[in-house]
Amino acid sequence: MKEGYVNKHEVVKRINKLxxxxxxxxxxxxxxxxxxxxxxDFIGDSLELSQKAARVNEEIIIFCGVHFMAETAAILSPNKxxxxxxxxxxxxxxxxxxxxxxxxxxxxYPGRKVICYVNTSAEVxxxxxxxxxxxxxxxxxxxxxxxxxxxxxxxNLASYIARKSEKKIIPWDGYCYVHNNIRxxxxxxxxxxxxxxxxxxxxxxxxxxxxMADKVLSTGGMVKEARTTRKKNIIVGTESGMVYxxxxxxxxxxxxxxxxxALCSNMKKITLRKVLASLEEKKYRVEVPCDIADRAxxxxxxxxxx
Length: 306
Ligand code: 13P
Ligand code: SF4
Prior knowledge:
By secondary structure, the chain is of the alpha/beta class. The protein has 15 helices and twelve strands. It has helices at residues 8-21, 34-38, 46-53, 67-76, 99-108, 122-127, 137-143, 155-164, 177-180, 184-193, 207-210, 219-228, 242-249, 272-281, 290-305, and strands at 24-29, 42-44, 60-64, 81-83, 113-117, 130-132, 148-152, 168-171, 198-201, 215-216, 233-237, 254-257. The protein has a four-stranded parallel β-sheet, with helices on both faces. Strands 6-5-7-8 form a four-stranded parallel β-sheet. It has a four-stranded parallel β-sheet with strand order 10-9-11-12, with helices on both faces. Iron/sulfur cluster is lined by residues 66, 91-93, 119, 176, 178, 204, 239, 264, 266-267. Residues 66, 91-93, 119, 176, 178, 204, 239, 264, 266-267 line the site of iron/sulfur cluster.
């Protein structure tokens, strides 16, 4: 970043000016820190962000989220320049399965279709039949041919689908450490503090935590539900950064994180200054080799069409 932009106000001004000059759009995931959300043109969950990425007119997409999300944008918008402000912002769950793992898995279960959660690398998506997000996982599973389905990498999301579906869902042994570390005792503690509150949970959570919830929602689902719910108090069972946007958009309600320390350190790597540096220096470019992108696109587009 060039010298001289010391305070936050100046950084924001510079971002907004450069964004226009460079013909860039800023896409932001719901878990990003508040000040990054403030400069976003569009804030959403993984599904909404991929749909948006496929439709933007701007030449540059600044993706404020984790690497697999920026990769998905690059796959869906191959003619755009996709930049991530911190190239070390990965998703540990996505790293729990490799393309080679999927190839071996398919050999062990011949003829089974494979669903991959969007939280996977492009190489993994290229090996799978269809992709899903937390917003549409059940719908995707129901649409897939066959009674036995392989699902990677999130075992908690797999178990959530399995309990709703007649199909046999064979899970990979991956998980999100942020959601997996939300325990039943955290829910009990918050329920004791806010006895009239509803509890909303993300489906990456443990089955026993999901069982305690009033609603199971993707992050985008939580944003929508907050607009119409009659409830005044809500305990939010996901990464605690989620509360920022919910509270901002719904000042008449109270949102409490189920666990204050449910933080995704990778999501928090993106800062305002890194967004500015990304615009100024056109870094860090996220590119997916054509052969992998073409195969991965097939799996993503099947999901988007659904
Ligand atoms: P959403 O698609 O619900 O935003 O979830 C993405 C994610 O990484 C959750 O941990
Ligand atoms: Fe990955 Fe979990 Fe962070 Fe989402 S919250 S990006 S699943 S580590």
